[in-house]
Structures are given as structure tokens and as C-alpha cells.
Amino acid sequence: ADGLIASTGSRVGIGVTAPIARLDVGATSSGDTMGVRSQGLYGPTGGYLAVQGADDFDSITSADWYGLELGIAGVSTGSSNNDNYGVIGHSNGSGVRGEGIGVGVSGKSTYDGGVGVQGISNGTSAAGVGDLAVTGNKAFAMPNPLNPEREIRFLCMEGNESGTYFRGTAQLMDGVAHIPVPEDFALVTDGEGLTVQITLVGGWTESWVESSDLNSVVVRGNSDLTFHYTVSGMRRGYKDYDTDHANVSYRPEVRGIPFGAHYPAEQRQMMVESGMLNADFTPNEAFMKNVGWEMREPTDRELEWAANLATPEQR
Fold first, then answer.
1. What is the helix, strand, coil percentage profile of the chain, to 5?
2. If DSSP codes are grouped into helix, strand and coil, which group holds residue 2?
3. Whole-number CA gyration radius for the chain
4. Is 86 exposed, middle or buried (0-12, 13-18, 19+ CB in 10 A)?
5. What burial class does residue 68 get, using C-beta atoms within 10 Å of its C-beta: 0-12 exposed, 13-18 middle, 19+ buried?
6. For residue 217, what are the CA distances in angstroms to 179, 190, 247?
7. pLDDT at 83
8. pTM (predicted TM-score)
9. What gap in Å lies between CA 85 and CA 87, rounded to an integer?
10. Interatomic CA distance for residues 284 and 287, integer angstroms
11. Cβ contact 52:26 at 8 Å
């Protein structure tokens, strides 16, 4: 519908089945306003964008509209100590086309140079995309050349440091090889803590790394053999990374409902061992109260979902 309007400060939930040509949204005054906020939701692509910061509709001018096309953009301008979110994606779905888990937020671009999900920050102490933590896998996807209905996903390697590396192949000449360090590696890598691994090809000889720094790596040996090498380092400024963090990813919110059914069994068992969950995977309320994590009562739909779990494994 053209001209769907939410007045200033109102709490509105919108459900549409057709594209909105224009979405006018007034600024909200305070409180948790869900559904539509002037600074949290823009109109679908192809239409106008919602205004930002207008106190009422009488003050809206053409300058409040922007010549951009967006699907959904979330902006948070809260200045309190509370958590402020531009976009939150949450899925309790059983999967996409019967595979995997539900998707809270999905970004996709089908055009050259397009961006599915983008994070930009102009702040002096903010990040468009800062520390990234996932509870599942991080992977890249490639088409399967043998089956167009499938794709191949390779997972990222994980470690307890913010690592950098480069690798290649070189050859000993007169018992020595000088490997230049790529400039981009040297620019982002800490000068301390470099390690070098070499693998001889086609034969065996005594070989060793004589020296390594951000300028070059020197390898020596008793025969002029070819060898593969991998040089590893740590990202500048992140050398002292601490793997221990406050739990913000695994926090049950609903009383009496099994938590984490989409996680692997081993991962859920770790939460049982920590005392956060009971043996049936429901939240341990004594623990929750002790650490000050608030819980809410389950909705009828959540109770129905839990009742339909036939076996302990499903729960």
C-alpha cells in the first residue's frame, strides 16, 4: 500500500504480502518500539526510504528522503548503557529446503560488485564489522562441477591466535635459499613469533632455517633440493588475544523450554557440564538466577513445540 504511516512514538507491527511503494515512519520518542522505528527500518527496494529524526510529519521535507534503494537497513542511535541493535535476526526454523538450520538474517547479491551484507563505520572507536564470533561453522561455498544441484563448502581453520601466513616453493642453490617476505604480510604481521616449516621434495638432506624476520627467510641445506615452505605469524595488535570471553552467544531466555536443539549434541552437553542447562537441556534456573540472567515465560507456540519433541534426543 502506498503511504502506510505510523505516527510518532507509536508501537506498530507491520505484516505485508506485497511490496510497499513508500513507507513513512515517524520518529519514536523512547522505549522498546518493535515492528517499525524511524531509525530502524527503511522501505523495500524500489521505494523511498523512511525519514530519520523527524519529530513529526509536518517537519518532513524532501531533504529527508534519500535517492537510495534498500531492502532493509537497521540503524541504532541509542546512547544508553543498554544493548542497541540496528537489525536482529532470529530463526527457530527447522531448515532451508530441508537442509541445515534456519536462517535469521541472509544477505545475497547477484550482481558484479554487489554486496550481500556490508558493515561500514565512520566512528572513531566503532567498527562496521568488529570481532566476529559464530556458533556454527565458517565456510566458503563453491559450485560442484560434477553436480549442479550441489555445492561444496570448505571450513575455515580455527586457532587460539589471530594468525597470518604465506607459503610457497623454493630451491636451495649452493646450499642456501633466500625467501623474500611479501610486503602485505610484513605490513600486517607482528615482528615477533614468526615460525617457518619446510618440506623437502624429491630427496633428503640436512636442512634448517637460519633466520627469519619480516624482510626475508633464509634456509640452508647440504643439497640443492626443492622444498615447500609455510611462514606463520600473528596479526599486529592482536598478539595477546585472550580466548576467554563473557558468554553472549549461549544464553537461554525461555523458562522450562529445551535450549539449543539446533546445536550438536557435544556442544549442548558442554552446557550441561557447565551447570547452565539441566540434563534435559532446560535452563538451570538456580544458575540463571545466580548469574543474573533474566528469563521469560514460554509462549503457547513454544510450549507446543516442546511438547511435540518425541524423544530426548530431539529435545
1. 10, 25, 65
2. strand
3. 27
4. middle
5. exposed
6. 5, 15, 41
7. 58
8. 0.63
9. 6
10. 5
11. no
Mean pLDDT of 294-315: 80
Residue 165 has pLDDT above 50, yes or no: yes
- pLDDT tens per residue, range 98-141: 444 567 777 777 676 677 777 776 655 555 666 778 888 889 99
- The size of the chain, in residues, is 315
Q: Which residues contact 198 (CB under 8 A, 6 or more apart)?
A: 207, 209, 219, 227, 228, 229
Whole-number Å distance between alpha carbons of 308 and 186: 56
Which has the minimum average pLDDT: 62-76, 173-187, 293-307? Answer: 62-76
The three grid cell numbers given for residue 138, joined into one nine-digit string: 565458517
pLDDT, one tens digit per residue, over 215-252 is 999 999 999 999 999 999 999 999 888 999 999 889 99
Are 254 and 305 spatial neighbours (Cβ–Cβ below 8 Å)? no
Alpha-carbon torsion 20, 35, 60, 58, what sign? positive
Task: Report the alpha-carbon distance of residue 109 to residue 216 in Å, rounded.
Answer: 41
CA atoms of 274 and 287, how far apart (whole Å): 10
Residue pair 255/298 in contact by the 8 Å Cβ criterion: yes
3-class secondary structure, 189: strand
Which cell numbers in the block locate residue 255? 523458562
